[in-house]
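[retry 2/3] ATP-binding protein: previous attempt timed out, resubmitting with same input.
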Amino acid sequence: MTALRTEAGATMRFKRFEIRPLERQVWVGDSAVPLGGRAYDLLMLLQLHSERVVPKEEILDRVWPGLVVEENNLSVQISTLRRLLGSDVIATVTGRGYQFTAPRLLDADAPPLRVLPGNLPLRQPPLLGREAELAELLDAHDAAPCVTICGLAGIGKTALADAAAQQLAAGGRYPQGTWRVDLTDVSHPALLPITLCEVLGVQVEAGGDAAAACLAALQHRALLLVLDNCEHVVDAVADIVGSLLANAPHVHVLATSQEPLRLAGERVMRLNPLAVPLSADAQDAKEYGAVLLLLQRVRSAMGGTYDPSQQELVDLVEICRQLDGIPLALEFAASRVPLLGPAGVRSRLNDRLRLLAGGLRSAPLRHRSLQAALEWSHQLLSPATQEVLHQLSIFPSGFSLEAARELLGANAESDLIEHLNVLVDRSLIVPVISQRPRYRMLDTTRAFAMECLRQRQPDFNPGAQLARVMSRICVLGAQMRDIVAMLQEMPNVRAALAWALTEPTAAHAAVTMVTYTAVVLSPTGSIGEALDNLLRVQPLVSEQLPMTLSARYWHWLGRLGVEGRVPAPLCVQALERADGMFQVLGDARNRHGCQRHLAEAHLRTGRLDLVEQHLHCARALEADNPRPADRVRRLRVEGLLADAKGDHATALRHAQTALALAEAHGIDRSRLLLLGDMAWTHLQIGHADAAAAEFQDLLTHFGNQPGHGQARARAMEGLTAALVAAGRIDDARRSALRTARELQLDNLLRGRCDIFAWLAAACGADTAAAQLLGASEDFASRTNTERDPVAKLARRCAEQLIDATLNDEERTYWQTQGSAANAAELMHLLQRTFAPASANFTQEPH
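[retry 2/3] ATP-binding protein: success.
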């Protein structure tokens, strides 16, 4: 072990000059000489190794680590030192290198110079955006004899390990030093012990056992061994490190690898990408590690003076986001900015594997391009695992174990789990912390895997595969009523649907996804998206589709169209079609649902006689196949019919009977809807304060759980109406905007404007009230629906209040404006009208 690294410490004095390490300065006489950083590092390197000639290659490697420099740069620095310090200070040894020749003056009062053996570069590039990770790594090192930094190729494992090693070396903890061994060029596991011996200076006799010699040499030494790039010889590294941990108690190991060594006593640190802002226009963008690194590298490439404009900063942030904060990818992107500008680089990232190349000449081959870095990781996988990685790239937004199994047709789940385990270990797939186990690829990895897939199968259609898998997942999710899992899958479903709508042969997949996601989206309150999707695929519903799918489609279109979301005639027509198909299919259960929903649809049109007919049919269907849930839902509609007739006592009786059944059978969603219905009935009777209390209590049961969106919107609407009816105007204003947001999600904002008009009129906002009345009237006429009793009351009260302040011409004008307003414009109107009171309200009902 011959390389020495000086610890910052005492001044070193020579005949004509002195070196002050603490200040990184050289003094001649009474003043410091103007010496650059490279020249200082060169002088220190030569002085520390004054006993030998230092080869040019070693000087270039240690004074300019990670950079490609011309040899004349070294000559310039040598000339500078000779000019400032004297021509006899450094000798040139032709064909070999340079040697420091100035004799040192010993100072009896000065402490002896302390040296630390090792081979770390004298200067490290700054470590940007990794302060927390560096602290974590140093803590881990204190707690374990072996720490392995794991992560994707190009994630910055080496830079972090080198920074930690520098700090540990400076602490003087390892008398025999800190030694870095790059294993990149170790092409065979058998060469690993020999490489270690060469770096550490361990002598091995001809034909001797290099591993045994290395272990014997290190057994009683205290040193830090940094093993970089272990993944391709990981088993051999694990063997030799395991022996060191067992037999060399004072040797600590810091390893970088794409997978753990899996040793007892090993501490694994997973290195994630650099932090990126959540949006491209984030105000604090420059505080994120990825942006810091990209900006620093762009400035270096452009002469150090680059100051991006606001738009250029947005482009740079988006580059960071699209490249997942991967340091190596950002380095390549920075090198392209001088030529293409930030916008040009950003616009070409769809071809990132070809764009991002041209790394440092001193970099390993695998770090000369993004493609090469990913290929390095890829070639370490078995062919079967490679194939799994390629196939999984079809998912744009991560995937569940169920989706992966559906895609791959994995008969043995254990095989799939084993492949996923390997990919997670290699950081090619990242586990997602969520309510359900889920995994994702970084966009950069996904682009590489997709490229591999297309090269192997030129005719492969990822859109078709995604649509196939998502169709099946949607059916399974609807059958299981697994709302959480389906909400996680919705980004993938949207991508698959976008493809299917452009492909004439994908009608079955498109209608399947839309129909079965409606089952999940509607209870969550996302009815607008579900209904829009159903209407988009309506032209695709034909006799070529299976009758079961068509029947479910028409049922859900009619079911979501109730309450005026679609015109009443279309709603009724869809439900009648579905009912006829279910009758042919002999599906009594779904026929019962169609009859209930037909009753609700006619309830909204005022045809109470038809409501009675459909409820009679539903009761008959129950006789053949009684199900508690069906009876509960039919009784609820019976109660709504009684309310419409003004028979509130009967309405409450039906609701109470249904509630008892729902509680007995654990039908939670129906239970909450029924409690809301009873509160609405109390409001119609005139018990406004009691209704408000019931709605308030009901809202505490919802929280933010998925699956209660419709019931929560209805309860919020009832609370606002009850507060207005009770004369609690300030409280009503405080709940109004949240109610409006819930109704907008439920696609019913325009249909519920009468209640907001009543509140606006009570607040003296007469023109706003008139606009809201106009919007409500337009909704009722276009959808051919009647208002419920509370909406009728709200409209009468609002009209009476504004008649006192607006003349006929003014009222007509403002109502006309309201009838032309869309949902976004109505929300803006409500915000202007009610926001001042809402801004100070901190205890909204949940």
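[retry 2/3] ATP-binding protein: The longest strand covers residues 251-257.
[retry 2/3] clearing retry counter.
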